[in-house]
Specification:
CATH superfamily of the largest domain: Band 7 domain
CATH topology of the largest domain: Tetrahydropterin Synthase, Chain A
Strand order of the largest sheet: 3-2-5
Strand content: 15-25%
Order of helices and strands: HEEEEEEEHHHHEHHEE
Structural class: alpha+beta
Distance between the termini: 161 Å
Helix content: 40-55%
Radius of gyration: 47 Å
Number of helices: 7
Number of strands: 10
Shape: elongated
Largest sheet: 3 strands, antiparallel
Length: about 270
């Protein structure tokens, strides 16, 4: 019985040490994250193996695990850049990005957890300056916003292609011009719209006048043909037909055959 306490103390101490080691060695990686293993007595950052996946892991207590978020993330940027004629333009943009999971070890070794500030922000700023510098404020304000968005994405993606970072999208949310330039562009656009509207009215009026001229010419040609085809005999026949129709009318009348001009019947009323 006296030996039990002597045997129990090392066991208790061993259990405590084991618990401490397990606690220091246990790593839990949450959803949307991955871990990079650093071997203190090995070659440092492990780059030739896949990163540690989600869940519970046991590692040697002298090693370290660096946890990265591998879900898509968003960067908001407000940038002041110069247009092709040297005017300052403000671009509000956002970028969707994520680290390349299989290259997470290389990313940690070369850039570390500050990779957003080290490569992504400088890349999108450089691309924005390059792209916007090719356009005038008028183009940026009106028709080229989608174009600069696509071009900034392409140029930023090219810069990041060897940085172990995947760029998914660049969105240009707003383009802000100096107020004086914006007002001048809006006046110019209104004048152009008014000019186009005036030209449209001129074209419409011209087409309407042409339509009236064609209709008038058609009537004139029809009357000319009709006049050429009418003879005295035809007119007499038409007069006789009209007289017959009038004779059928219930109104009181007297018809004297052959007493009118050109031998046409003469119609006398009761007056």
């Amino acid at each position: 019985m006296e030996k039990l306490p002597k045997i129990g103390v090392p066991i208790v101490i061993g259990i405590i040490i084991l618990l401490v080691l397990v606690t220091k060695s246990a790593v839990t990686i949450d959803s949307g994250e991955a871990g990079v293993l650093f071997k203190t007595f090995g070659n440092g950052v492990v780059t030739d193996e896949p990163p540690m996946s989600e869940g519970f892991h046991l590692v040697a207590p002298w090693n370290k695990v660096f946890v990265y978020e591998v879900r898509q993330q968003e960067l908001f940027e407000k940038m002041k850049v110069l247009s092709s004629n040297g005017l300052e333009i403000q671009i509000d943009a956002s970028a969707w990005y994520e680290p390349v999971r299989k290259d997470l070890g290389n990313l940690h070794q070369t850039l570390g957890k500050d990779y957003l500030q080290r490569v992504i922000q400088p890349a999108i700023r450089s691309a924005a300056r390059s792209v916007v510098g090719r356009y005038t404020p008028e183009q940026l304000y009106s028709s080229k916003r989608d174009a600069i968005q696509d071009e900034i994405f392409v140029e930023t993606k090219a810069i990041l292609s060897k940085q172990y970072v995947q760029l998914n999208e660049v969105l240009v949310r707003d383009v802000t011009l100096p107020n004086t330039i914006k007002d001048a562009i809006e006046r110019k656009l209104r004048q152009e719209q008014e000019s186009l509207e005036y030209e449209f009215r001129l074209v419409t009026a011209s087409k309407e006048a042409e339509k009236v001229r064609i209709e008038a010419q058609g009537k004139a040609d029809a009357n000319k043909i009709l006049s050429a085809s009418l003879t005295d005999k035809i007119l007499q026949d038409k007069g006789i037909d009209a007289t017959i129709e009038l004779s059928k009318s219930p109104n009181s009348k007297v018809i004297v055959v052959g007493s009118g001009d050109s031998g046409l019947p003469l119609i006398l009323g009761n007056n």
